[in-house]
Hints:
- This protein is an alpha/beta fold.
- The chain has 2 domains: 2-191 and 278-311, 3-Layer(aba) Sandwich (UDP-N-acetylmuramoyl-L-alanine:D-glutamate ligase); 318-461, Mur ligase, C-terminal domain (Protein-Tyrosine Phosphatase, Chain A), CATH 3.90.190.
- The protein is built from 16 helices and 17 strands.
- The protein has helices spanning 2-21, 30-38, 42-49, 62-75, 90-97, 121-131, 146-149, 152-163, 179-185, 282-297, 305-311, 337-348, 393-402, 419-426, 439-451, 458-461, and strands spanning 53-57, 79-82, 113-118, 135-138, 171-175, 192-197, 222-229, 232-237, 249-256, 262-268, 271-277, 318-324, 327-333, 355-359, 385-390, 412-416, 432-437.
- The chain has a 9-stranded mixed sheet, sandwiched between helices. A 6-stranded mixed sheet has the order 12-13-17-14-15-16, with helices on both faces. It has a two-stranded antiparallel sheet with strand order 7-8.
- Helix 2 packs across helix 5.
- It is globular.
- 52% of the residues are buried.
Amino acid sequence: MRARRSVAALAGRAAGWLSRRAGRGGGTAVSGLAAAWIDPTFVQECVRQIDGAVAVTGTNGKTTTTAALTALLRADGQRVITNPTGSNLERGLAAALLPHLGWTGQVREARGLRAVFELDEWAFASLAPSMQPRAAVFLNLFRDQLDRYGEVDRTAAVWAAAIDRLDANAVLAANADDPAVVAVARRHRGPQIYFGVDGVEGQSELDAWADVRRCPRCAGRLRWDVVVYAHLGHYACADCGFRRPQPTVAVDAYRPRGLDGATFRLVTPEGAQEITTQLPGLYNAYNLAAAAAGARAAGVDLQAAPHVLAALPPAFGRAETIRAGATTLILLLVKNPTGANQTLRLLRTEPEPLDTLVLLNDGVADGEDVSWIWDVDFELLRPSRLVVGGRRADDMALRVKYAGVQPGVGGVEVRPGIAPALDAALQTAPRRLVVLTTYTAMLDVRGLCSNRGWVAPYWQETP
């Protein structure tokens, strides 16, 4: 088996080199694809050599949470392998492991080495039982890519089956505010840590597009005292007693600063710490709380958390800013109703309307069914100028027309594709341009920015 792993490592490195040489990307997937094809146990065998892995999974926030958790572990003096590019299938994990392997297929300096891996929801279900992570972080469960995953209860079922096969000593960090996540986390035989949001006014009613309304234990109707957003909040079932657990790690006194970030208190059993972050939106406060809970699950002291989280930059494409001449691009990834609606609410906190570019693609990684855009409250969008692009530009133009979006200048401009849409949006040289983009469109527009010399390729920017 070691000989096969050695050959797999060699082939993976060669595939990655050829991909970069040909200008086809950073090799963050193809190198791992080659390695895992030659040795189907490549990831599991490599992970078993190191001192334990932490898996991060959920619908939204995986890349940001993984970056924050990795930063917290490194601040604690630990050496960490991670997959910072968001390549979160088996091939992405294999690609992340490759640079740490010697020519014999053994992990170099494996003792004291940790891994923090972002895992796609279904990749977690297939890989976690064989990887046996020391800790796992469960962020949330929202409707996403129905053509791939189906409804949230289907993903919850495969998570539950995977959790049943985890070691009893593994520590789970789970979102206390998501009833679907709590229901599956409670199946675990071992220790559990919960994180959540306290001290926000929230809403009194669920959003119309919320994915969970009934108790995941008895199917009774859940009641919410506070709805933070979607189906996240403080809930209880009067029929069976299922309710939100008390968070071990909580966000309190959240104070937004629009696109510039936020300030809040991070409350743990050791006390409260003031956190100032560059990451905007309440959803990112959840991500940072999840990272703190994951660090605690991994046995890391959180004393350095304020400094580490304040210095944490946005992950590529997730509130990342790119300077393009006189214009600052702000890339905001939107890929499902919950994430898109939170982003639109974030934009409403800005003091004035902004020039906006919306890019809609229908690649496999986006979900080929784009009907989800009709569950997004585009009625909240109030741009000073609006350009829509991507492969499905016409679909997006129709959606914003029915939403009654009326830009201050020029009406809605439709430019199918990526480059034509970006060029049209930049034509008036706005000071700031907000780019709302699906996943593959984000990679496309960022690649375009890289080719024009505005930003380095994403795989070169992360350690």
